[in-house]
Automatic annotation (TrEMBL):
Family assignment from sequence similarity: Belongs to the UPF0065 (bug) family.
Organism: Paracandidimonas soli
One protein family per Pfam: TctC
Signal peptide from the UniProt entry: 1-26
Keywords associated with the record: Receptor, Signal
The name this protein goes by in its record: Tripartite-type tricarboxylate transporter receptor subunit TctC
Family matches, as CDD domains: PBP2_Bug27
Record has Signal as a keyword: yes
Amino acid sequence: METGKIIKAAGACMLIGMGLAGTAQAKDDKYPSQPINIVVPFAPGGGNDLLAREIGMRLTKTMGQTVVVENQPGAGGELGARSVARAKPDGYTLLMMSNSAVSGAAFNPNTPYDVVKDFASVALVARIPLALAISNEVPAKTVPEFIKLLKEAPDKYNYGSPGQGTVLHASALLFLGTTGTNMEHIPFKGAAPIVTEIIAGRLEATFGAVNSMLPAMKAGQLRLLAIGSKERSAQLPEVPTMSESGVEGYDVDVWYGITAPAGTPPEILKRLNTEIAAVMRDPELKEKLAGMGMETFDIEPPEQMDKIVAQDFALWSKVLKDERPAP
């Protein structure tokens, strides 16, 4: 081939490549071109709902499109999660997920979606510290003292949770399995009645979100023995962690993250991740969430949340295997 023809062919290839890149860039730049829905799989007013609304309000300003929070309660959060798993993977339908969705899927073999494979993570956004709380009627001031009581009287004590398969139920089972102890499980509908029963002395213990128990603790109506996460809570720096109390490797809190349907283009996930990271750095938002008992995460790439979901699912599948209902 003559030199001139080679140059012309190379130039033509460059123009085509530039044209394709420009088309791809133009396509990326169009997102978002319509409102974005964040599905909250519970009724309005809960922690995940309030968090979604705070984030959505700020994303509306930064992304140039309305971000709508849509509550889809039912079946312990499964209905809303299922609708997102089945939605078009175009970045316009997102889910405010908590780790109770992961433990719930590990508990229920009939969950209508695969919590690991049917979602594409966007970002972990916030957490609420989890704590072991006991009644003032229980003669223990520390975790080692409480474990000693449980071993001396294995059928005497009970604990409450918001229901089987919730992360609070799973976290209690993890504690019991790790320490070789036993307590009777009493499921409740929500956290409020659990705190009421502990204050009344009719329930001995619970593993709960700190924000639901903090007022009672400050009033001296119950005792918080330890924080579940590997680091002390900024809200309760005087309360030791489980690991510090001798329960090695225990690391559980209540986390919230935003996910999309599996198959959502990586560039859209990255754009959402970047926008959410900027929002979560807002000092006003951090302060507001702290008032709700939440601590914000430093936003990491979507792959980090994928990893945590998979790790949690593996852990809770093991912990809950003997608690599962029949398929």
